[in-house]
Design the sequence.
């Protein structure tokens, strides 16, 4: 997790490093997945669906849980989606960034062909197939389709942010205790998760081992034949027997895969290999044993609870694990909003980097307190984890469906595979996710409306900001002053040039901003050296320090005017103002000394 860690840097890592990252990932990535057994069966049987003596219901639900968890979490995310990284980074914006670079799409207004010379901008070397060329051309020529794709990506992002509100709120405590815990969680965010990140992993590991041991005990003690439920036949029997009530109850099954998206989103903090090892070797088998054991217990104890002798120890560990899950969701929300801000899809907010050693650890004060207020409002307003679970399920399935659709495009446009392969993946995974989406949407009046309202509000904010930013840039471009127009005024620009360096920030990467004409007209003097600074984001996660600054001269040498284009990736940490200005000035000095046309400085 050290700064600069990427997929490329981890390829040659030792086994010890990979295993250490796998251990650390337990405390960050798997909080949601690990706490799912607390809610799945409870939410599934919270409505009219009930357990009966013939065990059709519990066997059917277990079959749905097993196959959903295996197909979505293991097959889709571990074996397919995690291969679609963007220079080691994952998440919705990583997929969108891959598509934008390979299909020449962009939501950033001031992109230039020179940006594509960066090493991180490299696309697949294989030649386009006729199918990928056709699809790319279709997107490149259709502006409305590009806007639709952006809105679709923002939908997935907004649903992920709503997860950040619902995950802390779903913790099953007494209302007053929940509120106290929520306030405590949000109050310590400014310290940074890196200070306790390594301590999170033991709680998750202990919890997973605890529920797996209890699961094995329940299997052998209560119902050794429970493994029959792993047959897909029981899913069809369940739907045939329970009908519409069974279909509506499957929104609870969705909670078994909450957090699967985190494996993909947090790849940049660890590595794909370490996350896969942690999931396949510990998380997956432990959770499967827990679900099977819980079903075995419920098959013989329809109205009972777990033994009181183990209740309090398990309750304490579960409480700690729920806090970890909440922390992971909050941190993910901070990261997503930071990316949206870099891509002109969110208003400017103050971002505090809480660690100088660990990359990606950020804190956003305004967002933190808004999240806390929303969590408290949801917890106090609903007073029912089942209703919160319905909202949570809708958010989770929507995000996963967005990822599936983007992956279908990546398969054709980026991986250059046949469209049949993409359609097969889309139909296979998409049909499963839409099946659960339909179940969750039906419960809009029972709590699922929260996800829709939260996502709609955030979507309006994001799209409005992106639209306004684009229009502002268009205005700046239309009204910029041509370079020749000012150069004809002579080296002094018609005013007194005094010693010093003047920095003029602008959005345009060529010409002069419109406001500079007003400055020339109304100010009596200007600095002897003028530097026009354009800070821009590019569609890669990181820009290397060697390629960050691009210096060029404006006009002849005697004009002493320079242009500095500063490029940041959507996951880069912006330099502090003092360090940035020092680095830029030293780059200009080196540029003057070398006499090159363009220079980059490490």
Sequence:
């Amino acid at each position: 997790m050290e700064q600069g860690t990427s997929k490329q840097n981890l390829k040659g890592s030792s086994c010890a490093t990979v295993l250490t990252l796998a251990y650390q990932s337990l405390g960050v990535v798997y909080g949601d997945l690990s706490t799912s057994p607390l809610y799945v069966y409870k939410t599934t049987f919270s409505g009219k669906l009930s357990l009966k003596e013939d065990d059709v219901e519990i066997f059917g639900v277990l079959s749905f849980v097993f196959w959903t968890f295996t197909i979505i979490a293991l097959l889709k995310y571990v074996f397919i989606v995690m291969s679609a990284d963007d220079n080691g980074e994952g998440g919705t914006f990583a997929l969108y960034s891959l598509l934008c670079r390979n299909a020449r799409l962009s939501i950033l207004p001031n992109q230039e062909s020179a940006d594509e010379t960066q090493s991180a901008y490299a696309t697949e070397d294989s030649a386009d197939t006729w199918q990928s060329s056709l699809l790319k051309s279709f997107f490149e020529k259709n502006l409305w389709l590009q806007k639709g794709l952006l809105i679709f990506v923002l939908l997935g992002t907004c649903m992920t942010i709503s997860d950040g509100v619902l995950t802390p709120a779903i913790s099953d405590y007494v209302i007053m205790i929940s509120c106290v815990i929520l306030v405590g969680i949000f109050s310590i965010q400014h310290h940074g998760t890196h200070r306790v990140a390594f301590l999170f992993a033991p709680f998750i590991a202990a919890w997973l081992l605890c529920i797996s041991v209890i699961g094995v005990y329940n299997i052998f003690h209560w119902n050794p034949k429970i493994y029959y439920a792993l047959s897909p036949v029981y899913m069809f029997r369940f739907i045939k027997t329970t009908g519409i009530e069974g279909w509506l109850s499957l929104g609870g099954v969705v909670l078994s895969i909450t957090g699967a998206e985190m494996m993909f989103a947090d790849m940049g903090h660890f590595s794909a290999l370490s996350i896969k090892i942690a999931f396949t070797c510990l998380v997956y088998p432990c959770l499967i044993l827990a679900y099977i054991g819980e079903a075995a217990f419920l098959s013989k104890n329809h109205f009972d609870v777990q033994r009181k002798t183990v209740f309090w120890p398990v309750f304490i560990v579960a409480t700690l694990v729920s806090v970890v899950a909440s922390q992971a969701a909050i941190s993910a929300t901070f990261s997503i909003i930071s990316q949206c801000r870099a891509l002109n899809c969110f208003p400017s907010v103050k971002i505090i980097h809480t660690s100088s050693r660990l990359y990606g650890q950020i804190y956003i004060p305004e967002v933190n307190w808004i999240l806390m207020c929303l969590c408290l409002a949801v917890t106090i307003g609903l007073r029912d984890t089942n209703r919160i679970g319905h909202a949570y399920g809708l958010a989770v399935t929507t995000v996963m469906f967005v990822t599936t659709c983007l992956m279908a495009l990546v398969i054709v446009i980026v991986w250059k595979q046949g469209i049949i392969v993409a359609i097969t993946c889309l139909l296979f995974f998409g049909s499963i996710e839409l099946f659960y989406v339909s179940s969750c949407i039906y419960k809009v009046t029972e709590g699922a409306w929260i996800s829709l309202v939260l996502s709609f509000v955030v979507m309006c904010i994001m799209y409005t900001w992106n639209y306004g930013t684009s229009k502002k840039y268009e205005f700046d471009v239309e009204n910029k002053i041509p370079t020749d127009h000012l150069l004809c005024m002579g080296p002094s620009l018609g005013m007194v040039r005094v010693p010093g360096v003047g920095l003029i920030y602008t959005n345009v990467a060529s010409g002069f901003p419109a406001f500079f004409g007003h400055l020339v007209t109304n100010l009596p003097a200007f600095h002897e050296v003028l530097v026009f600074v354009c800070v821009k984001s590019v569609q890669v996660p990181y820009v290397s320090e060697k390629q960050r600054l691009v210096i060029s001269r404006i006009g002849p040498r005697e004009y002493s005017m320079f242009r500095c284009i500063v490029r940041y990736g959507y996951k880069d940490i912006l330099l502090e103002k003092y360090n940035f200005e020092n680095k830029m000035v030293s780059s200009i000095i080196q540029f003057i000394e070398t006499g090159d046309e363009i220079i980059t400085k490490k």
